[in-house]
């Protein structure tokens, strides 16, 4: 790993994003709009929003980051940019860490905006510390980014990259405990749920809305999400191809 090359890659990605206002709007505005819609869908049942608002604060940014990073990385490869970059003294890990740093900054801004809207303007009740809720929301965005970088290696077109969302994200959404408590699931489904990172993100959000303080359980859940993020980045570096066959 070369820090200078990693930072140069991150700078290049951020400059590309600055010149693409539609992508920036999707990253920063869409999660806020979805949370706002969720609030008004359950306007007559505020207790429902209090129950699902915190998990969705992490889920919506995760989905958006997954889509954008998967398509952006694939576009680099199909356009030949990735192949040209890797002919220079730039390692795969430098490249992916540069992407992770750039989109990580975006995830931080995204998380702050969504958090400010959900907790500040929409009045979501949180028993735990607000900074912990923000940390989990940002970690979810980073997880979506890492998974997007990883799956882009297995797609040949941007359409295929989008198709990976049902395969990678929807099973996690169904089994994370948002729709049905994980303890009430069948044994096999519960085992699968136990190895999915989104389950731990939702558990952390749920604990922060019900329990005061930053307990050991939340710390473990957050560590699992961040560990899965690092694992996805490592697998992405190992499977990254110079170009699409």
UniProtKB/TrEMBL annotation:
It is a multi-pass membrane protein. GO terms for biological process: response to antibiotic. It is found in: Cell membrane. The keyword Transport applies. It comes from the Bacteria. The chain crosses the membrane at residues 21-42, 54-74, 95-119, 131-156, 168-193, 213-240. Residues 18-243 form the ABC transmembrane type-2 domain. GO terms for cellular component: ATP-binding cassette (ABC) transporter complex. GO terms for molecular function: ABC-type transporter activity. Keywords: Antibiotic resistance, Cell membrane, Membrane, Transmembrane, Transmembrane helix, Transport. InterPro entries: ABC-2_transporter_component (IPR051449), ABC2_TM (IPR013525), ABC2_TM_bact-type (IPR047817), ABC_2_transport (IPR000412). Belongs to the ABC-2 integral membrane protein family. PANTHER family: MEMBRANE COMPONENT OF ABC TRANSPORTER YHHJ-RELATED, TRANSPORT PERMEASE PROTEIN. This is Transport permease protein.
